[in-house]
Design a protein that fits this description.
With 388 residues, the chain is of the alpha+beta class. It has 2 domains: 1-132 and 323-388, P-loop containing nucleotide triphosphate hydrolases (Rossmann fold, 3-Layer(aba) Sandwich); 143-299, RecF/RecN/SMC, N-terminal domain (Glutathione S-transferase Yfyf (Class Pi), Chain A, domain 2, Up-down Bundle), CATH 1.20.1050.90. The protein is 37% helix and 22% strand. It is built from 10 helices and 17 strands. It has helices at residues 41-49, 62-65, 126-130, 148-160, 166-185, 191-220, 241-248, 251-270, 299-321, 338-349; strands at 5-14, 17-23, 31-34, 69-71, 79-81, 87-94, 97-105, 112-116, 119-120, 133-136, 234-238, 283-287, 292-293, 326-329, 355-359, 373-378, 381-385. Strands 2-1-6-7-8-9 form a 6-stranded antiparallel sheet. It has a 6-stranded mixed sheet with strand order 10-14-15-3-16-17, sandwiched between helices. It has a 3-stranded antiparallel sheet with strand order 11-12-13. A hairpin with a 2-residue loop joins strand 1 (5-14) and strand 2 (17-23). Helix 4 (148-160) packs across helix 6, helix 6 (191-220) crosses helix 7 (241-248) and helix 6 (191-220) crosses helix 8. The longest helix is centred in the middle third of the chain and has 30 residues, at 191-220. The protein is globular. It starts with a strand and ends with a strand. The model has no long low-confidence stretch (mean pLDDT 93). The structure holds adenosine-5'-triphosphate and magnesium ion. Adenosine-5'-triphosphate (ATP) binds at residues 15-16, 35, 37-43, 64-68, 360. Adenosine-5'-triphosphate (ATP) is lined by residues 15-16, 35, 37-43, 64-68, 360.
């Protein structure tokens, strides 16, 4: 399989980078960025994540990404200037050959423009036809113990990678739910109106749950295959009400039941009760060999389970989409013991894609000596290192 990767990365006014022009060779060996806290490592990974649809690996507002200059003096008004524009552009090698892709804001607004090979793209999703990215960030270290909102977001981003309509369905469901909720809380009892919205919630809600189940099943087939056997095997269980119902009954039956549930819940919801549905869905992960829930596993075990899921997603995407996604692994070595870490590096260095990794300590990556490109990052400047 052809290797995928970035050959040139150019940033302008992106976070701490006034300007960056980084050229990379086409060997597509792993790229390791090391440096002190605040040096600018994660910003580089985030810039690459903006070469795909969405709001990048930090889920940031576009205005937060623009480079801030100036200073804040206590008790005086902040003197911070925001440049009107920021941009990330890249030359990438994919199975389609060479492409030039770029993104940025035009007027400091919350809309970003996307350019692909000299033309302006109509939709962000066009980027996905060129290249895709998967990432792991330190914020996900608490995924299994943290709040269900982040877990649901993680799940839905995973589903979106396989089902291009998933996000549209989610926003259609959320719009209908918001309107239904407003009507009821304002005391409206217009039945036809409520029923119309419930129909939309049922149609989109059951499709959302079905897609989540389908993608989890597809990914599960790739869990801990091959070299990944060194990592613990996670079992992913969707615990949402609609997802659970779909495991036992036909979709048409679940649709009827969900519609009846919405209708019955009207009065209680109007009085302030909550509503269960695809918008409250969650999942749990079991460490199969230990028969223990991930949330009860050690920090390192949780990280290893998360990596197993990420690698399975990568394998499934590679198989189904004919191209391996780029991997952006921020603080990849954190919490892993040396044995697991080196086993992971062994997997990563052989993938048909470019893997970007960061860490504060270069010694963590010693195992990759002569098999990766090492950059030292200091004050948002990158220096290629000859040896690890
Ligand atoms: N919009 C912005 N404009 C200017 N600087 C920014 C902006 N957003 C973030 N920064 C700064 O960029 C610097 C580098 O951040 P980054 O997250 O890349 O550091 P890092 O090398 O990953 O550090 P760590 O090891 O702590 O994770 C930080 O000092 C941060 O305050
Ligand atoms: Mg960082």
């Amino acid at each position: 399989m052809e290797k995928t990767g970035v050959i040139q990365l150019r940033l302008a006014n992106f976070r701490s980078y006034a300007f960056l022009d980084m050229a990379l060779d086409e060997s597509f060996v792993p790229i390791v960025l090391t440096g002190r806290n605040g040096a600018g490592k994660t910003n580089i990974l985030e810039s690459i994540s903006f070469l795909t649809a969405g709001r990048g690996l930090r889920g940031a507002r576009l205005s937060d990404v623009a480079r801030r200059t100036g200073h804040v003096v206590s008790a005086e008004p902040a003197i911070i200037q925001l440049p009107a524009r920021w941009s990330v552009s890249a030359g990438v090698r994919t199975r389609h050959g060479f492409s030039k892709i770029g993104t940025g804001t035009v007027d400091g607004s919350e809309r970003r423009q996307i350019r692909i090979d000299g033309r302006t793209a109509v939709k962000q999703s066009e980027l996905g036809e060129i290249m895709r990215c998967l990432w792991l960030t330190p914020a996900q270290d608490r995924l299994f113990c943290g709040d269900p909102v982040s877990r649901r977001r993680f799940l839905d981003r995973l589903v979106q990678a396989f089902d291009a309509n998933h996000t549209n369905r989610l926003s259609a469901y959320n719009t209908a739910f918001k309107q239904w909720s407003c009507l009821l809380r304002e005391g409206c009892s217009e039945k036809a109106w409520l029923m119309g919205l419930e129909e939309q919630m049922v149609a989109t809600g059951v499709a959302i749950a079905a897609s989540r189940l389908d993608v989890v099943e597809r990914i599960s087939a790739y869990l801990n295959t091959g070299e990944e056997a060194l990592f613990p095997r996670p079992e992913i269980i969707l615990t949402g009400m609609v997802e659970q119902a779909l495991l036992q009954k036909a979709a048409v039956v679940v649709e009827d039941e969900f519609a009846a549930y919405l209708c019955r819940s009207r009065r209680a919801y109007a009085d302030g009760a909550g509503l269960t549905g695809p918008h409250t869905a969650d999942f749990k992960v079991i460490h199969a060999a230990k028969a223990t829930e991930a949330s009860l596993c050690s920090t390192g075990e949780q990280k290893a389970l998360l990596l197993s899921i990420l690698l399975a997603q990568m394998r499934a995407q590679t198989q189904e989409q004919g191209q391996c996604p780029l991997l952006l692994l921020d603080e990849v070595g954190a919490h892993l013991d040396a044995f697991r870490r080196d086993a992971l590096f062994d997997i990563l260095k052989n993938l048909p894609t470019q893997v970007w990794m960061t860490g504060t300590d270069a010694a963590v990556f010693a195992y990759l000596k002569n098999q990766a490109q090492f950059f030292n990052v200091e004050d948002s400047m990158l220096t290629l290192q000859k040896v690890a």
